[in-house]
Design a protein that fits this description.
Main location: membrane
Pfam families: FUSC_2
Distance between the termini: 70 Å
Shape: globular
Helix content: over 70%
CATH architecture of the largest domain: Up-down Bundle
Strand content: under 5%
Number of helices: 31
InterPro entries: Memb_transporter_dom (IPR049453)
CATH class of the largest domain: Mainly Alpha
Structural class: mainly alpha
Oligomer: single chain
Strand order of the largest sheet: 1-2
Radius of gyration: 31 Å
Family: Belongs to the YccS/YhfK family.
Subcellular location: Cell membrane
Number of strands: 2
Length: 732
């Protein structure tokens, strides 16, 4: 993509406004906390302290809206106290430019590196850099610095207290995550009716798994319907795929296929009912007709072999998910025998609570992440360097310009910069547009209405509440509300509104241009790293498949934990790969040997590899089943071949799977007599896996160019008539 097209695409993305489900009560709670802090500070300490306290309350409420599974009061407290520390340092050092600029750059670098811990940490850290710059407009001393830091911390305490005292839809985010996972599996079941090899996006299951990580206190208070359905949904998904797949016994058409379609539709209905029950905290209501479909004896007559075992297991798991998703205690307290059998092959029948690590272990983990990112080619490290340099240069540039308020330009840069190209450029366009509209409208209100200090405070609270309500609809809308909020807040503090309006518009443009220029000069493109990320995803997917084959080779050993671990690693790697592809498509650089079509085909091949392993996982043999020694040899060949394939992929050559094909050939040559069911399933899966691996290599093979084909045709000489006569055998 050219630079012109990339700028156009990212600008449109930054100006996009979407329809989202609004949460007015949560926005009202945040606005109430903001009003309480601002009006109380205004009446007790005056406009200056009120403006300072407003930043703490505003940012603390914004932190509670971030997509994080940590307790919301904790996010508000972390934001409030970190802002208080930043405020104190900014007030103490601002009088010495030679101290303040290095402090600002150090704080900005730390904020950039905070993205290693996740987007929520990065956003809160960026707010800290902003508060270092914004509060320097107020007169400062050590005593006043402590005072302003205290009121900002108080703003965070107020917002945290409101979240704790006025809970709105308690456990709502966790309920939505689990309900979305159940609904995604239900949709998958319905799609399998028409497309037996349909792909499944595991993102809802991944989000539900993240939501299931709780503190010990949360684990004790968690509603009963949030304790088990996720694990059952994880086990239902491969059973659905194995039941629908025509390669495992059910023909593409006929009575057996119709029976499978009925079972899949019934499974989708049950899972949807469980999703509604979890989301609303109500009993599970399944239609009687659906129950009849699941209990009919026709299944035993029409299905046999692996499909029949999958149908029995599906019925047991659906009973299990109904029991665990019902807040009233479920329709049955028994654990079906098939569910126990499934637990022996996969996750336990009751999902184990995943508690969050202690704070000391979390700090050690974050420190390790930061150390791993301290390298020149790391996108997070490059982001830290960019944001640090731009903050320092922007502040010095603003100080040299005869406009006053030197923080507007670096403030814009810090708030719009992200570790990737598309978000940085999109946010720059959205921030400038929203700022232009918001400042203009707020300035017109102030000039025409001449509101007093208290009315300006109320207008600022109103704009803050609108921002909380509409922030998820688009960045440009959020910046429109924030710009009006800042204008009213500074007007309450007594800042020259006319001067602020002109400076904010002009310096916001300068800050956005600085951010865009910094990324252009010191980028962290995803496109050149696509082959490396694809190689990592390939290794993770083949490791998952190899773990499943080893479970067939040694049924006496419990390998469910290793299979589960490799499955999660494969999911994470594919998610990172897909995210990298999406980022690379917006970048104005070539993808260096990996075209968009090749990336899409490779992603489909990865999905097929994961699907084959998932189908085999649905039929893992029990501990008393006979071993399948060829499966272990195939797993060893797959490990060795995938390591070489990853190296070939990074070297821009198509991977080869000769060793895996040879192991499959030896498997067929050694096969004698009638095979046991695990052997048949494993052999069928091995053949499907080789096809998926060949498809992966085909996706990455360089296309044959027409010119090269013509050159090859020229080199093929047509023999003459005399030569043909000479080649013919002569009689006698």
């Amino acid at each position: 993509m050219s630079w012109l097209n990339a700028l156009a695409e990212t600008s449109r993305s930054g100006l996009k406004v979407e329809r989202k489900r609004l949460v007015p009560l949560v926005a009202l709670r945040g606005a109430a906390g903001l009003a309480l802090v601002v009006l109380l500070s205004l009446n007790l300490f005056g406009p200056g302290v009120a403006a300072s306290s407003a930043f703490g309350a505003f940012s603390a409420a914004v932190a509670t809206f971030q997509r994080s599974w940590r307790p919301r009061p904790l996010l508000a407290l972390a934001s409030g106290f970190s802002l208080a520390l930043s405020t104190f340092l900014g007030y103490v050092c601002v009088v010495h430019l030679w101290i303040f600029v290095p402090l600002l750059m150090l704080w900005a670098f730390a904020a950039g590196m905070a993205w290693a811990a996740g987007p929520t940490a990065g956003i809160i850290a960026a707010s800290n850099v902003s508060i270092v710059m914004v509060t320097v407009t107020l007169p400062g001393s050590v005593v006043s610095a402590l005072g302003h830091a205290a009121v900002i911390a108080a703003g965070g305490l107020v917002q945290a207290g409101l979240v704790w005292l006025v809970p709105i839809r308690r456990w709502g985010a966790h309920r939505d995550a689990l309900a979305d996972a159940l609904a995604a599996v239900a949709d998958y079941a319905r799609r399998l009716r028409q497309d037996p090899v349909a792909d499944f996006d595991p993102e809802p299951l991944m989000e539900a798994r993240k939501a299931a990580v709780l503190t010990p206190g949360q684990a004790r208070r968690r509603p009963v319907e949030l304790r088990g359905p996720r694990g059952v949904a994880e086990r239902i998904r491969p059973v659905l795929a194995s039941l629908a797949d025509p390669g495992l016994g059910v023909p593409a058409e006929g009575p057996a296929r119709e029976r499978v379609r009925e079972l899949l539709y019934a499974a989708g209905t049950v899972l949807d009912a469980c999703a509604r029950a979890v989301r609303r905290g109500q009993p599970v209501r399944v239609p009687a007709a659906t129950k009849a479909v699941l209990r009919t004896p026709d299944t035993e007559e029409l299905l046999s072999g692996p499909p029949l075992r999958a149908a029995r297991r599906l019925r047991a798991l659906l009973d299990d998910v109904r029991d665990t998703a019902d807040p009233s205690g479920g329709t049955s307290s028994r654990v079906p025998d098939d569910a126990r059998e499934t637990a022996a092959h996969g996750m336990p029948a009751v999902t184990r609570t995943r508690t969050r690590a202690p704070l000391s272990q979390q700090a050690a983990g974050i420190a390790l992440l930061l150390r791993l990112q301290l390298r020149r080619n790391s996108p997070v490290f490059r982001h830290g360097v960019r944001i640090s340099v731009v903050a320092g240069v922007g502040y010095l540039l603003g100080s040299l310009l005869p406009l006053g308020h030197p923080y507007w330009a670096p403030l814009t840069s810090v708030m719009v910069m992200r570790p990737d190209f598309s978000q940085t450029y999109a946010r720059a366009a959205g921030r400038f547009t929203g700022t232009l509209l918001g400042v203009t409208l707020a300035s017109l209100v102030v000039r025409l209405a001449h509101p007093g200090t208290e009315l300006l405070a109320w207008l600022a609270v109103l704009c803050g509440g609108l921002m909380y309500l509409l922030m998820r609809t688009g960045y440009v809308v959020a910046q429109f509300c924030v710009s009006m909020y800042v204008v009213f807040l500074l007007g309450m503090a007594g800042t020259d509104l006319e001067q602020t309006t002109l400076e904010r518009i002009g310096l916001t443009l300068v800050g956005g241009l600085l951010a865009m220029l910094a990324y252009a000069l010191y980028p962290a493109w995803e496109a050149p790293r696509l082959r490396g990320r694809l190689a990592t995803a390939l290794l993770a997917h083949t490791a998952y498949a190899a773990a499943v084959f080893r479970a067939y080779a040694n049924p006496s050993e419990d390998r469910s934990a290793q299979v589960r671990k490799d499955l999660l690693a494969a999911r994470d790697s594919r998610s990172e790969w897909q995210e990298a592809v999406e980022k690379a498509r917006d970048e104005p650089v070539r993808q260096r040997g990996l075209s968009r079509g090749a990336a899409d085909d490779a992603d489909e091949a990865l999905a097929q590899i994961a699907r084959v392993a998932m189908l085999m996982e649905a039929h893992l043999p029990g501990r008393g089943s006979p071993p399948v020694p060829p499966a272990d040899r195939l797993a060893q060949a797959l490990d060795a071949a995938s390591t070489r394939a990853a190296r070939d992929l990074r070297d821009r050559t198509a991977p080869r799977w000769d060793a895996v094909r040879a192991a499959l050939g030896n498997w067929d040559a050694a096969g004698t007599g009638e095979q046991a069911p695990p052997d048949r399933v494993a052999r069928k899966g091995a053949g499907m896996l080789v096809e998926a691996l060949e498809g992966f290599s085909t996706a990455l093979a360089p296309p044959k160019r027409p010119q090269e084909a013509r050159e090859r045709e020229k080199t093929v000489r047509v023999p003459s008539v005399e030569e043909e006569e000479a080649r013919r055998p002569r009689a006698g």
